[in-house]
Amino acid sequence: MKQLSTPEHVRHPAASGVPRPVGDPPAGPLVLAADVGGTHARVGLLRQRHGAVPPVELLAWQVYECVDWPGLAEILEDFLAAHARPPGAIVRCAVAAAGYLRGGRVIAENLHWPIVTQTLRRRLHLQRLDVVNDFEALACATRFLSASAGTAVIDAAGSAGPLVVVGPGTGLGCAVVVPRGDHSAVLPTEAGHIALAPGNEREIEVLRRLGHDRDYVHTGYVLSGPGLLNLYRALAEIDGVAVAHIEPRQVSAAATTGHDPLAVEALAMFCAMLGSFAGDLAIMFKASAGVYLAGGILPAFRDFLLASEFPSRFLNKGVMRTFLASVPVRMIEHGSLGVEGAALMALPDAAPGN
Questions:
Q1: Among residues 160, 206, 218, 350, which one has the fewest Cβ atoms lying within 10 Å of its Cβ?
Q2: Is pLDDT of 3 > 60?
Q3: Residue-range definition of the domain harbouring residue 32
Q4: What is the C-alpha radius of gyration for the chain, rounded to an integer number of angstroms?
């Protein structure tokens, strides 16, 4: 990916990234794209490149903390004020969000504020606005990653076939890339909402505790940033010990330094259950091309995950073990992939099936 220079000014203390002001870009449609999650909004300006691989070029991008902004419109206005020249030149926008569109609003459990398509069109003077699933966009962009991208969690050869992209962040996302002739199709899923499946007695006990005040415990209730905190609290309650951490990052930090045995157990259980879940997805979709682990929280404890029970739990699937032993699993940086994928889905002739 092209390295971009840092501007001399930053328009908001919560914004970060590697943006580059865009002057008079060469011919080719421009698109403003945003990858919006519960914690971060990643925003980019991209240009379509006909006949190139990948077919979009990232001209500028920036990361915003959602909690520091009143809405997505304000974030996009800030980005355009810094990077679009001349003002008003961008008339096409794509938004990848962790939710679904209904009645002109993005319905999402983890967003800080509503996304209303009519408001965005009016305030940004857009001619076209596309709203896509965030993990569908992420999976779309992974088609252009090299086989050696990221970090190997399970180093296997793989073979032609479907590819699963799964990632814990504020929620738990999942999408599948399915080969179709010379191209591929991306299948968005809501796999993060399937029932949580414990793998041993301790996990059964945790599930029982998590389910004491609810009828249904879905996988994302554990395999996400907030889910790690849920695991930690459940273990503390089971063991009758005081809770020392109130944020997921505090739990992961305490676990990676080894200073808190309960945090270590919570993160170890998280990694093990993620391995089981990833193995289930690989079987479900016969993902012979591999599994990509993405999402915003994994890089904070990459080494911990690599040394965890993730691989053994991924492979522990009975007669399917032989198949899974040939499935590569790699951890990739989320970065600007969701932004690029949203643009790919919005630009003509750049979408996966074209």
A1: 160
A2: no
A3: 15-140+336-346
A4: 21
